[in-house]
User: Fold this.
Amino acid sequence: MLRSHRRLASGLVSAAVLALGLSACGGDGGSGSDSTVTLTVDTFSTFGYEELFKQYEADHPGIKIKHRNVVQLDEYLPRLEQWIAAGSGAGDVVAIEEGILTKFMAHPDKFVNLLDYGAGSLQGNFLDWKWKQALTPDGKYLVGLGTDIGGLAMCYRTDLFKKAGLPTDRDKVGKLWPTWDDYIATGKKYAGEVKDSKFVDGSVNLYNTILAQAASQSVGYTFFDPSGKLVAGSNPAVKSAWDTTLKIQQAGLSAGLKSFEPSWGSGFKQAKFATIACPSWMLGVIKENAGAGAAGKWDVAAIPGGSGSRGGSFLAVPKQSKHAEQAAELAKYLTSVNSQIVAFKARNNLPSSPQALDDPAVKSFKNEYFSDAPVGEIYAAGAKAVKPLYLGADNNPVGQRFEDALLALEQGRLAPGAAWKKALADAEREAR
Assistant:
């Protein structure tokens, strides 16, 4: 899953979220006897809104925010789809990952038109392509407001690199791997020196990152072309990302961990791998999973292959909300220039606002956990040059089939040729 955004965090779901899933009670924004309006906000992974919620409630005494967070994207999306289709159950403000936005854009009337609530005046606060992603072709209906984009880098363990006799300085590390072939060569050097950990976490996260990069640098789409046609078998970006991932598997560099599973989270704590493809939102995920004990052991370097973006989300207000006006105001607040800066400093979610990207608070921001890496400079540098990817309505389920095939290949359950054929066949079935 391409964000798969943006950003999934650790493997545990709180009891409150489990109760949410069982009851699907919905975000009716009920008002108490004191006339306080409760606005329910549904998110996945880590959006960095905790302090923003507190500030908004302090500035709006009549508003109470109820935050419902489902950690894993692949658990969140089916619930959101069900709630939107049923016309009940969703929060007043919901996060929509870019991989599913296209599906919702086919039915914009399921959401309030944010242009009716003054959002049109905010267009200049967003990268042009980010704004257009949630706008109907006729320009008359705005489904959502952008939160973040997923600039790319590579995160690595300095202690493990030192153990392998590799440089640990981030600039020198970036020069080790201008290309993915160079990355593989570096991995082989690492493997020759370190036997108790692998070079990379696993195939899924790596494949999705390479695919997003390759597609954004070439055709501008992944499994579906802009007409909605499935082109997984003919898009060279899909096959080249697959082949590069296969090379890494065959070189024995992968720990074989499935992203966002409990074993993946444990892998961070146990230093089971030295590098991980690192969209900006991944920084918060690493910190949550690796824990305080790994502070200062991680750093951030340039990613092989050049710039790209993987992931990004939007905030929307479902038509079913009973407090659409208040919900729209909250969505505008959470996606404002200042709020995007706050979210970046809290969770390193790279802003989709050009003003926020240019703000000194972002450009000069260093992440203490990641050895004081200048993450603002690293991620913001090429953000404005990022080219958007077209993701079809069935992007996520099709992407899941490719992930499944890669895992089967990595676990020795399928041979390379059979795994590729199975991925294509399963993709065809999902797209029917």
Summary: Confidence is low (pLDDT under 50) at residues 1-26.
